[in-house]
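Help: read this over?
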Amino acid sequence: MMGEGVTSPRRLLAGDPVVTRDVYARVRRIVGSRAYGLPSDLREDVVQEITIELWRTIGKPGFDLDRELWGFVEVMAVRRCIDAFRRHRPMSELNPEQPGTADDPLQTALSEERRQQVRRAVAGLSEDCRTLIRDRVEGGRSFKTIADTRGSTEGALRVRFHRCVAKAREIFLSSGGTA
């Protein structure tokens, strides 16, 4: 285990080479973790920034030199990794001239209302018409395939489909829908 028995910030502040090496190794392990998404070319700089900040913080008047070192080192290293990630994450500039890609809320509401009207119109059809429309539109089945499974001719099925769609249109328009 790194620095076994060495828990005092005093030894780091005094420049103890064993503690210094252990602190550096621990910080390096944390910074190298893939969890923080830091690019490899940035990691060594972050390790050095953290190590320098540790020494500065421990050296400030009033710092409790009797506190446990490793918890402090790990908390500071994790926080600085997050800071570094935030500073260096890829950003793209927003172009004020480019129109937004978000849908217009009014159009979204109208589209949803229209879908509901179509659903109500289809629900007003006979079971045979609903099944035929579902097979053809949602299922993407050809008229020939549907005709074969129903024991009908393709031509008769096309006529039936046309009548079902016309009836759905009639229900749609009578419920306030617009063509």
Confidence is low (pLDDT under 50) at residues 1-6. The helical segments are 9-13, 17-32, 40-59, 69-88, 105-123, 127-138, 143-150, 154-174. The two ends are 76 Å apart (CA to CA). The first helix runs from residue 9 to 13.
